[in-house]
Amino acid sequence: MSNKDRALSEIEFEALANLRYRIRKFRQFSAKAADKLGLTGQQHQALLAIKGLGIGDRMSLSDLADKLFLTPDEAAELAASLQEAGHVTIETKHKRRPAVMLTAQAEELLHRLTSAHLYEIREMAPELMQALRMLGDHRQMEVAAWMQ
Known about the structure:
Blueprint: H1 10-36, H2 41-51, E1 59-60, H3 61-68, H4 72-84, E2 88-91, E3 99-102, H5 104-147
Antiparallel strand pairs: 1-3, 2-3
Helix pairs in contact: 1-5, 3-4
């Protein structure tokens, strides 16, 4: 029987529910933290995606759309709102691939948000790990039972 055809166990439902709860809890924390600094959750995600490229890498609007699961038009709108707020500049030197770059103001906001997010993640890591471990351990027990 393939993995997708087998019935899910109560342990798997419980573990998935707990994992999804922890993810929602973190997303709620993240949205509130961003809101306190005048950003929407999506704006925060965009700034983090741009910063996360690393030194020397350039975020194009199509890359931003890809990272945030947006249409190109939605990414352009988001970048324009960030530019209007003073968080990014949009370089149009290459008209076919405009680059979105963080301003010093955005760097400061990200520093504050990221510190808070890392603290929160470290606080909830044991709960996340437990939910993931429940899923992994149960699957390993199934495989071991099947092999006997």
